[in-house]
Amino acid sequence: MSVQTLYTAATGMNAMETKLDVIANNLANVNTTAFKKGRANFEDLFYRQESLPGAQDQAGNLTATGEAIGLGTRVSSTQTDFRQGAFLDTGNPLDLAIEGRGFFKVLDTQGDTVYTRAGDFSINGVGQIVVGSASIGRLLDPAITVPQDAVHVSISADGVVQAKVQGQTTPQNLGQLELATFINPEGLLKLGENLFSDTEASGSPQSSIPGQNGTGLIRSGMLEASNVNPVKELIDLITTQRSFELNSQAIQAGDQILQLVANLRRY
């Protein structure tokens, strides 16, 4: 039995190590724009059934409970928490935050559409609006180009992009922002660099104008902060570390029992 204790406790240590990795990633991204924290989910493993519930005892009575010995735990999934992060006022009209559901659509280097909540947009050398670095940024989808003689760019809550051009009094319409929503955003594939791609689990993207069909509104001049709560993560870090230590103590206890059994031949 003590041999099984070693293997069962080892599964607990492996699971706690994975949870520590998730917590460390959350804390590392506490200042990452629009970062969504992760959570490790666990499930128990198989059970060794010594006796089944409802079996007959020696007197012919049905037992109310059985005897099952669990064989440990494992990480079943790492789930993304898409709750809204706080808004940071930057004053830059090209900094955009989504208040509510939805993702910005951008093009990756292969021309495929990917999705992001990070709205730190800028303008590249030919006037196109991109997310990330202005030199290697990813193009907004659908593309919007700002005239070189534009003196001010404004973006409304429903995603209408306008620019005041030098020598003109009436703002010029440049395009319309669109947001993508998913029936199951937790099924999106994380690509890094604040990007996601759709999968069969997430469902197909549904594009809408901001504020329509359940999508959020655009807040220009703001960025969405990470939704990581450092205090809660530190508490989880402590409890996970203690759980790891308890599993290691269970391994030590199993080893002591094995050592005692091995020494019985001396008596």
Topology:
Elements: H1 2-28, E1 38-44, E2 47-51, E3 67-70, E4 73-80, E5 87-89, E6 96-99, E7 103-107, E8 113-116, E9 121-123, E10 129-131, E11 138-139, E12 150-155, E13 160-165, E14 172-176, E15 179-181, E16 189-192, E17 195-197, E18 206-208, E19 217-220, E20 222-224, H2 230-262
Antiparallel strand pairs: 1-4, 2-3, 5-20, 6-19, 7-8, 7-15, 9-10, 10-11, 12-13, 13-14, 15-18, 16-17
What does this protein structure show overall?
- α1 (2-28) packs antiparallel against α2 (230-262).
- The chain has two domains: 2-82 and 228-266, no CATH class; 87-224, no CATH class.
- The chain has helices spanning 2-28, 230-262, and strands at 38-44, 47-51, 67-70, 73-80, 87-89, 96-99, 103-107, 113-116, 121-123, 129-131, 138-139, 150-155, 160-165, 172-176, 179-181, 189-192, 195-197, 206-208, 217-220, 222-224.
- β7 and β8 (113-116) form a beta hairpin.
- It has 267 residues and is an alpha+beta fold.
Order of helices and strands: HEEEEEEEEEEEEEEEEEEEEH
| End-to-end CA span | 22 Å
CA-based shape: elongated
Percent strand: 25-35%
Question: Cα-atom Rg, whole angstroms?
Answer: 27 Å
Please report the total strand number as a whole number.
Answer: 20
How many helices? The count is 2
SS-based class: alpha+beta
- Kindly state the percentage of residues in helix: 10-25%
The overall number of domains is 2
**Major sheet strand order:** 8-7-15-18
Reported for the largest beta sheet, the result is: 4 strands, antiparallel
Mean pLDDT: 91
Q: Segments where pLDDT lies below 50 for 5+ residues?
A: none
